[in-house]
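Write out the bound-state structure for adenosine-5'-triphosphate.
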Amino acid sequence: ALILGIESSCDETAVAVIDGAAGTLAARVVAQRIASQDDEHRPYGGVVPEIAARAHAETLAPMVGAVLEEAGLTLDQIDAIAATAGPGLIGGVMVGLVTAKALAMAADKPLLAVNHLEGHALSARLAEPGLQFPYLLLLASGGHCQILEVRGLGQYRRLATTIDDALGEAFDKTAKILGLGFPGGPAVERMAREGDARAVPLPRPLLGSAEPHFSFAGLKSAVMRARDAGIHKPEDIAASFQQAAIDCVIDRTRRAMATSGPVTALVVAGGVAANASLRAALTALADEAGLPLVAPPPKLCTDNAAMIGWAGAERFAAGLTDPLDVLARPRWPLDPDAQPVRGAGV
Ligand code: ATP
Ligand code: MG
Ligand code: FE
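---
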């Protein structure tokens, strides 16, 4: 089936056409575009929800037309319309979902209300056609840091989450502390390449603890103290931060692997999965366990519409379409049983 996918939950406006029947990544992504709002948000040092929603509203409709044209398709030839329905910044989510509803209504096509996190979770199956359920997923993004057993479409068991900051948030805050601007993750990674990861002693919160949860707030505070001390080069602080964060992730993921059921692969997804050092460390961890590591290409890790269209294609194939009155959801955990951990959000 041909699915039109729309993503607008944060600060990328994105549209894609996905061919769910194709057998390779290249053939599955018929056409796609992404407009990043980095320039709009940069003066504020972070994403401003009102600016994001307005930018999505200006960019989205013409982008749908452009992507359909690039795909050589008319709306009539599309089988269903998929859009992120949450979680995310509600103004932006509503722009995307309402646009999808209007297109679905006008062309009389089914609507697919996609969970953005399910988009990240299934991006690995878009990139790697052979990947079978169940797999163990490290979801590391700007708003989430979780380990989930992905048992099937819509079937998630959460093994771990963060008790404070998400991993991408820790990268973004470190970037801010080091004056690297916005968005922070890629800038920290670039700077870390020039530094010595052993130069600055930094804490590794929760390392070795029995529950595989994450914590990054203490690491961020230590980065701030290291900067204020004025002894170390920023390159060394960036490299030491990245190494400490990765050490935590590897330890916590190893712990989760010990408690999960049998899986076919270790998968990493979400924006931070674009980080080359993290991918290398996870490859070694997966090797240790005799599992393949599946990491989508970096452009499918950060927010995009191909993953939303693909999740839509999987849901469409399973007959899981949604009514036109489906609501946008600012919060929407993948695991319905997920309980907050020590007061942290899900
Ligand atoms: P969520 O998916 O939880 O709703 P989001 O959609 O805002 O959050 P993503 O777009 O999936 O998040 O990921 C963005 C995050 O990934 C940002 O925090 C960014 O700094 C981080 N990131 C992107 N590239 C890298 C990189 N190369 N190294 C480290 N972090 C990175
Ligand atoms: Mg972004
Ligand atoms: Fe995301």
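---
The beta strands are 2-7, 12-19, 29-36, 80-86, 111-115, 135-140, 145-152, 155-160, 266-269, 293-294.
The chain has a mean pLDDT of 97.
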